[in-house]
Amino acid sequence: RSVILDTWKVKNIAEQLGYKNLATFEREFNRFSGVHADINTTAPRNAWYGRKLDKNKATAIAVFLGFNSYEALLPEDCTEWIFPAALTWDADYSPPGALLKAEYSIVPFHQREAEMQDLLAWCEADNKLAVRLYTGVGGMGKTRLAIELCRVVQHSLQWQTGFLRQRQASYYELERFACLQNKANPVLIIVDYAETRRLELTLLLQAALHADSKIRIILLARSALDWWVQLRTANQGVGDLLMSRATQVIALQALGTTAQQREESFFLAADSFTKQLKAPPLLSLPQDLDAAYFDRVLLLHMQALISVEGKA
């Protein structure tokens, strides 16, 4: 069987030992293993980039880095957040309306490049803990943006990430987030419907304040009203954190701010729905595309779905 080592652990430990880059890491590992420099071996490279390794090679790398077993270099799991794997839409089991749900990701991610670059820069900044609250009415694209960010930071940066599971919280459940302690990987946690989860947020933020790992927390809510005011008065350092410069409140702007952007988004959605529903291509636009309610991308794509279904 093969395993995938935690690339963040491998790189950090290698750097502590003086192997600052892949070339140095490979050269010293091959010397340690008695492998001739001219022989091509994928073991160090795979460990460096988070790809599958034979268990024997994984063990050899672990020993090289000072461990008895490769298990010390495996990613640490936490069951409290769920990585948002894309669902597959199936006409036999899903209604057409499900094509609009963020978790299916039917319409390609688009027109949020600036927001994504800003979020990646925020994730990679040096500060240990940072929080963002994104607000916006339902259908603005908050959840889809968060899903895409999770995928990017997991696959490109090897972070641990996901949406916080929603369950009944208790003041005695601080140990629920004990998995944040001593994590090698940075962590990105998304909390959807944050306005309904004040106790969970308090516990999560308390744990994050005491963790040694790099943590980013994104809260998604329709607005920052009473629940946010109350959360900012929480004790144990939580209120101070939320009133400090480590926390930002951002109102998510409309996806399409120009007529051209709305048209592009409409036709991209229509084309995506056409392929799923095996309908004829849609060539016309709704006459009221400039209406204010189409600021909500969900309503714009809903109109595209309605138009495609009318032709199916």
Structure report:
The protein has 312 residues and is α/β, with parallel strands linked by helices. It contains eleven helices and eight strands. The strands form two sheets. Strands 3-5-6-7-4-8 form a six-stranded mixed β-sheet, sandwiched between helices. α5 packs across α6 (142-155). It starts with a strand and ends with a helix. The mean pLDDT is 90.
Secondary structure topology:
Layout: E1 2-3, H1 7-16, H2 22-33, H3 43-49, E2 53-54, H4 55-64, E3 81-82, H5 113-124, E4 129-135, H6 142-155, E5 160-164, E6 187-191, H7 198-209, E7 215-221, H8 226-231, H9 238-242, E8 247-251, H10 259-277, H11 297-311
Parallel strand pairs: 4-7, 4-8, 5-6, 6-7
Antiparallel strand pairs: 1-2, 3-5
Helix pairs in contact: 5-6, 10-11
Instruction: State Rg.
Output: 23 Å
State the helix count: 11
Strand order of the largest sheet: 3-5-6-7-4-8
Largest beta-sheet characterization: 6 strands, mixed
H/E topology pattern: EHHHEHEHEHEEHEHHEHH
How many E strands?
Answer: 8
Average predicted confidence as pLDDT: 90
- Judging from the principal axes of the Cα atoms, what is the shape? globular
Structural class: alpha/beta
Into which percent range does the helicity of residues fall? 25-40%
Approximate strand percentage: 5-15%
Low-confidence stretches: none
Intertermini distance: 47 Å
